[in-house]
Design a protein that fits this description.
The protein has 2 domains: 6-79, conserved putative lor/sdh protein from methanococcus maripaludis s2 domain (conserved putative lor/sdh protein from methanococcus maripaludis s2 fold); 96-318, 3-Layer(aba) Sandwich (Rossmann fold). By secondary structure, it is of the alpha/beta class. The chain has 11 helices and 15 strands.
Length: 325
């Protein structure tokens, strides 16, 4: 096979013309007659090569330093499989309970082998009645990392403190008070952190409570829409990306995306090809968008997220012992 072409980066964060842009597939380069695997592969990045160490790493362009040797062109690059776009098989006619059963089996299998599972969730999990189910999934030991936004964290804790989500009762759906989520942010921030809100007894149940008491890492990513935000929310997007990327490089076997289009797409773009991505959303256009971006390892489920989570937990419990040791 032909040797890979390398060119130095002309400046920090600037790449040579025609640099090779990665996909999420397993990739190797031919260097000094050897096939070298590219580490930490993800889509839409570049390949930085150290000829002396005979190493190649997939790196975000913003992290490239002047003089780094970058793969240019396709020569000497091998990618497994084919990357396809705009071929989505999304259908709203597949029963959600059957998909929940199959995902439950997959989750049990992965955790049984010591694998890692990430959950990427939006505030609709709380609004749609999936809060208790996701909290239980965390409590049972089936979640290793929670990636979410300011909204879910706020409304989850609002539910614990006031029994509402966006001011509506989670018991009967009636409007109670629009200020509850703002008051929640103020109460939690006055204590310094979500962890302190749990330790002091302000937050006594729910998703964030289970993360704290079970030592499950949570990454809260901010946006321009956020009220507050909570002090735990990461408002620097580059920092948030780096933290999520660091967790992915530690290893992940399954990502469960729950009603959060932007966050799920962002995380999906960081995943290697062999990580399974299960995405649940009531809007089929969201599923199509994620699938058509080249995430061929994606299982798309067109369903109400609350219904799906309740069914998922039910099937996991039916599969046998519900606690991961």
């Amino acid at each position: 096979m032909e040797e890979v072409n390398l060119a130095p980066a002309p400046d920090d964060g600037i790449l040579p013309e025609g640099f090779f842009v990665t996909s999420n597939r397993k990739t190797k380069i031919c260097l000094k007659g050897k096939l070298i695997p590219v580490k930490n592969i993800r889509m839409d990045c570049c390949i930085v090569v150290d000829p002396l160490k005979e190493e190649a790493i997939c790196l975000e362009p913003r992290k490239v330093k002047k003089g780094d040797l970058i793969v240019v062109g396709n020569k000497g690059v091998i990618e497994e499989g084919e990357l396809e776009f705009m071929t989505s098989p999304i259908s709203p006619e597949r029963p959600a309970w059957i998909m929940a059963r199959d995902v439950a089996k997959l989750i049990k299998s992965i955790k049984g082998k010591g694998g890692r599972i990430f959950v990427v969730a939006g505030p609709a999990v709380v609004h749609a009645g999936g809060r208790e189910a996701l909290a239980k999934l965390i409590r049972m030991g089936f979640v290793d990392v929670l990636i979410t936004g300011n909204g879910l964290a706020v409304h989850d804790m609002e539910a614990s403190i006031y029994g509402t989500s966006l001011g509506r009762s989670l018991k009967n759906g009636r409007y109670v008070h629009h200020a509850h989520h703002i008051w929640t942010i103020n109460k939690v921030n006055s204590l310094g952190s979500i962890a302190n809100a749990v330790k002091t007894g302000l937050v006594r149940d729910g998703i964030m409570y289970e993360c704290v008491v079970n030592n499950v890492k949570y990454i809260i990513v901010g946006s321009i829409r956020d009220d507050g935000p909570l002090k735990d929310t990461i408002t620097d997007m580059i920092k948030a990306q780096d933290i999520i990327r660091a967790e992915i490089t530690k290893g992940v076997d399954l990502v469960l995306g729950l009603a959060s289009a932007l966050l799920v797409i962002g995380v999906a773009n960081m995943l290697p090809y062999d990580v399974t991505l299960v995405v649940v959303d009531i809007n089929p256009s969201v599923l199509i968008k994620i699938y058509d971006r080249g995430s061929k390892q994606t299982i798309c489920i067109n369903s109400d997220v609350g219904l799906f989570l309740r069914e998922l937990v039910r099937f996991i419990e039916q599969e046998g012992s519900s606690t991961v040791s």
